[in-house]
């Protein structure tokens, strides 16, 4: 069993689907994951901050964490109740500057009891208007990819983003914004039922795996963390910019990856 840990904090976020600068060391760390050589930083907790730095939202989340700690186990209903409370806190969040320009907070979509959680970078224009993640052209392409692998977006998937508010002009979220929003993603990871985590694009991969390796090098590989299977995949917006379906093209590679995901899903379902 791999001892990989996730890091919800990244240092220099990158644009979805763009090739990143290769840091040889980082690339080596990630591509050697199958040999259990990946050493990733632990998730930073909001309560690790000095109390004076905690926001109202941080304190509310800590209160939920304390309530959860008091219970030995959570049943599905309790888990979903806590997740809804976290969503409620995020819905009026002003922890970072993205709150000043957003229309709607985009917390999640899909089934929190599903076995797959898909994590993207942040809302775009359509998502900001509707409050639903992955509803623009990239979202429509994602739907097609899932359908082709017989994965149901409604039943088999829970969708979240690294940041819940749209960055102006769809810029890549800054480190302090990802940092501020990480308490929500952390809770989503803890309070959903997913055994499979898909990281769509470089920002999600950076936020979770703390790696700046090119997504093209690590996509399609499984990482194991706390009994969950994590796979970086291309962001659908990158596939929109690269429409070729030739063998070896990004779309073709995505198809190979989604087939692996479907296979893993079927294995887990038994
Ligand atoms: S992006 Fe996240 S931390 Fe920033 S205001 Fe929106 S919900 Fe809050």
Question: What would you say this structure looks like, in words?
Answer:
By secondary structure, the protein is α/β, with parallel strands linked by helices. The protein has a single domain (24-269), classed as Uracil-DNA glycosylase-like domain (Uracil-DNA Glycosylase, subunit E). It contains eleven helices and six strands. α2 (56-70) runs antiparallel to α3 and α3 packs antiparallel against α7. It is globular. The structure holds iron/sulfur cluster (SF4). Iron/sulfur cluster binds at residues 90, 93-96, 98-99, 105, 163-165, 177, 180-181.
Give descriptors for this structure.
binds iron/sulfur cluster, alpha/beta, Uracil-DNA Glycosylase, subunit E, 270 residues, disordered N terminus, 6-stranded mixed sheet, 11 helices
Say which CATH homologous superfamily is assigned: Uracil-DNA glycosylase-like domain
The computed structural class is alpha/beta
- Rough shape? globular
Assign a percent range to the helix content.
40-55%
Number of distinct beta strands: 6
Q: Give the termini separation.
A: 20 Å
Bound ligands: iron/sulfur cluster
Strand content: 5-15%
Question: What is the element string, with H for helices and E for strands?
Answer: HHHEEHHHEHEHHEEHH
Cα gyration radius (Å): 18 Å
Top CATH class:
Alpha Beta
Largest sheet: 6 strands, mixed
């Amino acid at each position: 069993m791999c001892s990989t840990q996730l890091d919800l904090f990244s240092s220099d976020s990158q644009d979805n689907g763009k090739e990143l600068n290769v840091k040889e060391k980082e690339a080596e760390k990630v591509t050697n994951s199958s040999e259990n050589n990946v050493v990733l930083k632990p998730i930073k907790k909001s309560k690790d901050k000095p109390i004076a730095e905690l926001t109202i939202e941080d304190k509310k989340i800590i209160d939920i964490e304390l309530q959860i700690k008091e219970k030995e186990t959570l049943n599905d209903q309790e888990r979903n109740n806590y997740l809804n409370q976290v969503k409620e806190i995020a819905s009026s969040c002003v922890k970072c500057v993205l709150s000043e320009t957003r229309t709607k907070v985009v917390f999640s979509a899909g089934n929190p009891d599903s076995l797959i959680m898909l994590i993207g970078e942040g809302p775009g224009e359509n998502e900001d208007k509707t409050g639903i993640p992955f509803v623009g052209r990239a979202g429509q392409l994602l739907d097609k990819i899932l359908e082709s692998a017989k994965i149901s977006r409604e039943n088999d998937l829970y969708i979240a983003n690294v940041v819940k508010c749209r960055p102006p002009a769809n810029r890549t979220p800054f480190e302090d914004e990802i940092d501020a929003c990480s308490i929500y993603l952390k809770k989503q990871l803890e309070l959903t039922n997913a055994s499979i985590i898909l990281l769509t694009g470089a920002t999600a991969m950076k936020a979770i795996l703390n790696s700046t390796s090119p997504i093209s090098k690590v996509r399609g590989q499984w990482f194991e963390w706390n009994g969950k299977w994590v796979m970086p995949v291309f962001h659908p917006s990158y596939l929109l910019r690269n429409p070729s379906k030739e063998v070896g093209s990004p779309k073709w590679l995505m198809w190979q990856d989604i087939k692996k995901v479907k296979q893993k899903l079927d294995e887990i379902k038994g």
